Amino acid sequence: MKRVIVILLIMSGALTSQAQSKKVIADKIIAQVGDKIILHSDITNAISDIKRQSQGQENAMIPTECQVLEGQLIQKALVLQAMKDSLTVSEEDIEAQMENRIRSFIASYGSKEVLEEIAGKTVYQIKEDFKEALREQKLAEQMRGKIVDNIKMTPTEVKAYYSRTPKDSLPFYESEIEVSQIVLQPKANKDVEEYVAKQLYDYKKQVESGSKKFEQLVKFYSEDPGKAENAGQYSLNRNDKNMWDPAFLSGAFRLKEGQISSVIKSKFGLHIIQMVSRAGDDAVVRHILRIPPVTDEEINEAKTKLDSIRKQLVAGSISFGEAVSKYSEDEGSKFSAGAISGRDGSTFITIDQVDKEMVVALKDMKPGSYSKPQVFTDERGSKKVRLIYLKNRTEPHRENLKEDYNRVAQRALEDKKSGMLEKWFKEHIPTYYISIDKEFGNCAGLEDWKKASNNVVKN
Fold it and tell me: What is the pLDDT along the chain (459 residues), one digit of tens a residue?
């Protein structure tokens, strides 16, 4: 039971197995909690999906069959208790979640047709197959939240947790930084933008005249970084307004199959879009992206504006967070006061997590200082200008409460929640009908479940 939280996370990510219906498995019931059964295929398919999702990841943790079974048992018990406590999941919520899952699958496989071919089912059938599994997952999440979400940690508890941790097992952190930025995106002048738009209109004419194929022009001219993987093709849904630029989405859904759009301006640049196929709110499109280049004049205008902002910051007439909210054009950090976060969501990051240009700027900066305006190229190849604020810099150190209190507190909170869940399961497992196949009789970590199962057999 020590792995309750980890296993629940495993279970929440293992719902893609039903899309892999062509797997051939000798199936049987291997466990039961109340009236909820667990099939052997549930275990093997979950592991197969986790392996597939982990391809290319270094040191990926693949759970054993015993661990996945424990996760399944945990989920079934939480679902039964949720039903007993009258917790519910609305049909609207299930439908919305299903739409998100299906769109994710289509994006992974390239098209709805490929997904249906691999699954051996229509999208409608896949949705129907998934509904109950998704409902159980949401109910289990609600029940887990009901058990642990109100748990808090006091500073005294955090200190006590830290003092109990053996000093030689405390993590060691390399030098880390807390850094924020204000980003401006210089806009290309009108003449340059019109010139690029004319080039796109020329591509459109070439395709419509039959002299060139759209895919060829994508290969030679598109500046979309993803073109190498998808040849400029994307699966869209009309309701995916948070994932796509509004102008791009709106322009795409005005097209008929085979039709090519006029030039569309989005936050990424200028596009022409070709409608490949469409079914209701779902569509497959290709596009060519061109990014109008900015001149030194536009870059210098942005640098001058950031110089003015820097003077306000140094004078203390505006805080960095206020300046970010008012001026920054970086959507990724605009709502976090400009902070750059690490892969784990922490604002403390190592120097290798920032781009090369920022590394150079940070080299001679001291905590609390602001850089001069810096020109850099983002991951999409666009030139931008930014102001960097170095909030903090730590030296290499063993974890301690002064520098790492938030990390310790979060770990202590998760440990406390895990303990509460363990206690809850010890109290509730004996109240359920439990059955576990003898094939899994030697699984470590299932002692409480097996004990309850044995009591059922005796009775």
Answer: 445 444 544 444 444 444 444 444 458 999 999 999 999 998 998 888 888 777 767 677 888 999 999 999 999 999 999 999 999 998 888 888 888 788 777 777 767 788 888 888 888 888 888 888 899 999 999 999 999 999 999 999 999 999 999 999 999 999 999 999 999 999 999 999 999 999 999 999 999 999 999 999 999 999 998 787 778 888 888 888 878 899 999 999 999 999 999 999 998 899 999 999 988 888 889 999 999 999 999 999 999 999 999 999 999 999 999 999 999 998 778 788 999 988 777 888 999 999 999 999 999 899 999 999 999 988 877 889 999 999 999 999 999 999 899 899 999 999 999 999 999 999 999 999 999 999 998 898 898 898 888 876 555
Please give the model's pTM, rounded to 2 decimal places: 0.67
Q: Where a domain ends, among 290, 323, 348?
A: 290
Kindly report the three-state secondary structure assignment for every residue of the chain: CCCHHHHHHHHHCCHHHHHCCCCCCCCCEEEEECCEEEEHHHHHHHHHHHHHHCCCCCCCCCCCHHHHHHHHHHHHHHHHHHHHCCCCCCHHHHHHHHHHHHHHHHHHHCCHHHHHHHHCCCHHHHHHHHHHHHHHHHHHHHHHHHHHCCCCCCHHHHHHHHHHCCHHHCCEECCCEEEEEEEECCCCCHHHHHHHHHHHHHHHHHHHHCCCCHHHHHHHHCCCCCHHHHCCEEEEECCCCCCCCHHHHHHHCCCCCCCECCCEEECCEEEEEEEEEEECCEEEEEEEEECCCCCHHHHHHHHHHHHHHHHHHHHCCCCHHHHHHHHCCCCCCHHHCCECCCCCCCCCECHHHCCHHHHHHHCCCCCCEECCCEEEECCCCCEEEEEEEEEEECCCEECCHHHHHHHHHHHHHHHHHHHHHHHHHHHHHHHCCEEECHHHCCCCCCHHHHHHHHHHHHC
* Domain hosting residue 320, numbered range: 175-187+295-395
The tally of domains found in the chain comes to 3
Q: Domain check: are 31 and 107 in the same one?
A: yes
